[in-house]
Amino acid sequence: MKLRAPIGALLLAVLWVPASGGLTPGPAPDVEWRAADAGLDRTVIDVAGGGEGWRTRVVAVRVDPARFTFRLRARLRGAEPAWSVQRAPASAVMAVNAGQFNGITPWGWLVMAGEEIRPPGTGPLSTGIAWDRAGRMHWLRPDEIQSWRLTLSRRSFSEGGGEIVEAFQSYPMLIDHRGEIPRQIREAGLGVDVEHRDARVAIGALPDGRAVVAITRFNGFGPLSPAVPLGLNLSEMAAVMRRLGCVRAVSLDGGVSAQLLTRERGRTHIWHGWRRVPLGLVAEPKDDLR
């Protein structure tokens, strides 16, 4: 017999706000953020998607870039990706797998410590996320990535003199620059598998500039649920990010790559992935706040 969510279950946020409409500022009223540390908050919500995503748990963290520096970390071991959240530095309050990847290399634009490692990838649903020297977070459409690159010479990148010090690119976007969920992830036949369900990871931005990172876990058996790659489709994940208050959002590599670490007042919490990845993103306290 096919399992179905009970009628009284919490409805997914797709029903909370129209998929193509404007955003309601701030999170949904039933999202309660708990202070995990100064500048770091966490929330847990349960949602009911379709199919095997009928019972999904969402763990999300809200990070204040005024207090934390975001850095990318890469690691390979021979011909295999070798980074996991367990490799995050001891000072990190948050770590998550970053971007998408082909084989052992990250996909798309990659800037680390002021040096451009990889050029931009192409794709209308891709999004670039960059941090400047002041720690400001920038969300870039594909055409904007190139214009930012043109303002910085290869020389300035190689010498660490460019304004952008960290950047990566991912896809597909979940909430675009207009605050809308793209048609391509809502409607079949536009180049995206809109029916595919998986464990999801996404990063988003709030109106005040804070970042939100969210990971999903199958929760069909409550506390006994295994960490299996089942869950939401892309439009449902986009709706979750809206529900968390995001005005921009992009998907990161999910499935067996999905992993998240938080350190909250000295306690470490890990949502493990099943495989290592080539690239991770960590948030560490700014030097003057350590």
Tags for this model:
290 residues, mainly beta, seven-stranded antiparallel beta sheet, 3 helices, globular, disordered N terminus
At a glance:
With 290 residues, this protein is mainly β. It has three helices and 21 strands.
Kindly describe this structure:
- With 290 residues, this protein is mainly β.
- The chain has a domain at 63-209 and 246-289.
- Helices cover 8% and strands 35% of the residues.
- It is built from three helices and 21 strands.
- It has helices at 142-150, 154-158, 234-243; strands at residues 34-37, 40-47, 56-63, 68-74, 76-77, 80-81, 94-97, 101-102, 105-106, 110-112, 115-118, 127-132, 137-140, 164-170, 173-175, 201-205, 211-218, 248-252, 260-264, 267-271, 279-285.
- It is globular.
- The relative contact order is 0.24.
- Residues 1-25 have low confidence and may be disordered.
Number of distinct beta strands: 21
Total number of helices: 3
Q: What letter string, H or E per element, gives the SSE order?
A: EEEEEEEEEEEEEHHEEEEHEEEE
Q: Poorly predicted ranges (pLDDT <50, ≥5 residues)?
A: 1-25
Oligomer state equals single chain
Report the sheet with the most strands, covering strand number, pairing sense and barrel closure.
7 strands, antiparallel
Helix content: under 10%
* Rounded Rg: 18 Å
Residue-averaged pLDDT: 86
What is the beta-strand fraction? 25-35%
- End-to-end separation: 55 Å
The coarse overall form would be globular
Structural class: mainly beta
Strand order of the largest sheet: 1-2-3-17-16-18-15
